[in-house]
Specification:
The protein is mainly α and about 270 residues long. It contains 11 helices and no strands.
């Protein structure tokens, strides 16, 4: 609390001020609590849960199985674990409630429900209580979730907030074809003509607030503003650049599987 108070003083001029007190007026709603919280929105509820725009469960469907894990968690014999389950459920409920009342629930440029990320480990703990067929479904959904988020990380984890379905309209077309349709709405000066390639397509350099304001398209600064190490061998945007990363991930997955099998046999 002391360090937080010092931070508030240095950044906002008062120990009692918050970041919202100095928020850009563009992000403040008139009449909203603290300028950002209003009545619950059904659009926000759908948006942060199942929508292809920012859906928490759309971009990581394995998290759906966390909902099934809460019930057996509540039925655990241990008194301590029975107390932990409602606390976790209550915390998840608070996060969802705040987000459906937040005027910026979509989170700008990003993938999935940006402000629900802290709930992922809680849903992960809930999934530890799955049994039988539920675990099999969780494995399948886990593979799908990994593929979705691997695609987002490899291509561009910050697609324009104007794209209604970033996974199918932007990320997958780029990963597979190296381009996306010019009809997809994207915030200028981003465009289908300037954001091409299979991987690491975001051209906004670290010293720019808006893309291409300091470094034009095609310049080394814009082309290498985002990259993975494999691109040093195969070239910027080359899909083969993902091979080294995939080999590392496969090795790690194999090591985990061997350890699990030894644990089970022991």
């Amino acid at each position: 609390l002391l360090f937080l108070a010092i931070y508030q003083q240095l950044c906002f001029g008062s120990f009692a001020s918050t970041s919202i007190d100095r928020l850009d007026p563009r992000f403040v709603s008139e009449g909203a609590a603290m300028g950002v919280l209003g009545p619950p929105s059904f659009d926000a509820l759908i948006g942060i849960t199942v929508s292809p725009y920012r859906g928490h469960f759309f971009f990581a469907p394995v998290l759906l199985m966390g909902l099934f894990g809460f019930a057996p968690w509540l039925r655990r014999e241990s008194g301590a674990e029975r107390r932990e389950a409602p606390a976790a459920m209550g915390l998840a409920g608070v996060f969802f409630a705040v987000n459906v009342c937040f005027n910026g629930w979509e989170g700008g440029f990003g993938i999935g429900a940006r402000y629900l990320v802290p709930l992922i480990p809680i849903f992960g703990v809930a999934m530890l209580h799955l049994r039988g067929w539920q675990r099999s479904i969780a494995v399948v959904l886990g593979i799908v979730s990994f593929a979705i988020n691997f695609t987002a990380a490899a291509v561009d984890p910050q697609p324009s907030g104007t794209i209604p379905r970033p996974l199918t309209q932007y990320l997958i077309p780029l990963l597979l074809r190296g381009e996306f349709s010019p009809s997809v709405p994207i915030t200028p000066p981003w465009s289908a003509a300037t954001f091409t390639g299979h991987t690491s397509v975001n051209r906004m350099a670290h010293d720019e607030a808006v893309v291409f304001t300091r470094h034009p398209p095609g310049s080394p600064e814009s082309e290498w503003s985002s990259f993975n190490l494999g691109e040093a061998f195969f070239g910027a945007g080359d899909p083969r650049s993902l091979i080294p990363l995939l080999l590392v991930l496969m090795s790690g997955a194999g090591a985990i599987l061997r350890a699990a099998l030894r644990e089970r046999s022991g």
